[in-house]
Design a protein that fits this description.
The chain has two domains: 6-203, 3-Layer(aba) Sandwich (Rossmann fold); 220-314, Roll (Methionyl-tRNA Fmet Formyltransferase, Chain A, domain 2), CATH 3.10.25. It is an alpha/beta fold. The chain is built from eight helices and 20 strands.
Length: 315
């Protein structure tokens, strides 16, 4: 039985749940590496990462290197002397870092590899209308998300859930998978599976202003998946044409209604306290919306104080 000395690397809340699970399982975490504190908010006060906040509360040693290749950081890491490293939602590691531990460095990725390599696997799984996704652990190598797979766990995507809900479910499944992976390493029972490197594979690129905009010409099911795949973050958006005004709006909670209609694509249909958008093959009912400079609000509240012109459209 191996005596593991673990260094954990991660930054956001997603990673906190995994670190918490590792500690609950009784593993020896000898160091935590996370992003440097960053200015945030109107006052631009320095804000620490979720992982730093949690790790500090547990009395763990925390490192926040600006440069992962710096001699100072490498010396600190060698001094800590980990024999395994766990990476969750962190930046790309240089070879000198991931090769350091005797038993390797493994990553948790929120997809069933080799599909959805990249920055936003949870979002793209929903955007693309997948019925199943999952989590994978793999040993890190020179390329992004291409290392040998240790374990996988499938997770069914519910047809109406948004990316926030799926994120939380994958976070908890990922914590269990990381604990199982550490147990295999501890017992020296790891059997890996090489990933296919040549596609075609579905990708999960970084979300941008361009690829989060809604294309209302697409079939209504794809529009629906696009919106829920970006709800609550970073949010799908489009332009509201309201008389002479053109306003960029963000859509959050929506409902899909597959039915025939005679309206032009993008036409807004107001019925009592509801607001629907005419799509290609059905309607999208908007439940929550956000105007520039305003907070997210229910459509019923929007309609109380916002004048929609008769020919208003979303495009």
């Amino acid at each position: 039985m191996r005596n593991l000395r673990i260094v954990f690397m991660g930054t956001p809340e997603f990673a906190v749940t995994i670190l918490k699970k590792i500690l609950e399982e009784g593993y020896n975490v000898v160091g935590v590496i996370t992003a440097p504190d960053k200015p945030a908010g109107r006052g631009r006060k320095l804000q620490e990462s979720a992982v730093k906040t949690f790790a500090s509360s547990q009395g763990l040693r925390v490192l926040q290197p600006l440069n992962l290749k710096s001699t100072e950081f490498i010396h600190e890491l060698e001094e800590i002397n980990p024999n395994v490293q766990v990476v969750v939602a962190f930046r790309m590691l240089p070879k000198i870092v991931w090769q350091l531990p005797k038993y390797g460095t493994f990553n948790l990725h929120a997809s069933l590899l080799p599909n959805y390599r990249g920055a936003a696997p949870i979002n793209w799984a929903i955007i693309n209308g997948e019925k199943v996704t999952g989590v994978s652990t793999f040993f890190i190598d020179e390329k992004i998300d291409t290392g040998e797979i240790i374990l996988k766990k499938e997770v069914v995507i519910n047809p109406e859930e948004n990316v926030g809900v799926l994120h939380d479910r994958l976070m908890h499944e990922g914590a269990i998978l990381v604990a199982k992976t550490l147990n295999l390493i501890k017992q020296d029972r790891v059997i890996t599976q090489k990933q296919e490197l040549e596609g075609p594979f579905l990708e999960a690129p970084k979300l941008t202003k361009e690829n989060t905009k809604i294309d209302w010409e697409l079939p209504v099911e794809r529009v629906y998946n696009h919106i829920r795949g970006l709800n609550p973050y970073p949010a799908a958006w489009c332009d509201l044409y309201n008389g002479r005004d053109k306003i960029a709006v963000q859509l959050y909670d929506v409902k899909l209604q597959k039915e025939d209609h005679q309206n032009d694509i993008g036409t807004l249909i107001r019925e009592n306290k509801t607001l629907k958008v005419a799509g290609n093959g059905g309607l999208i009912e908007i439940i929550e919306i956000k105007l520039p400079g305003k907070r997210k609000m229910k459509v019923s509240d929007l309609l109380n104080g916002f004048k929609l012109e008769a020919d208003a459209k979303l495009l």
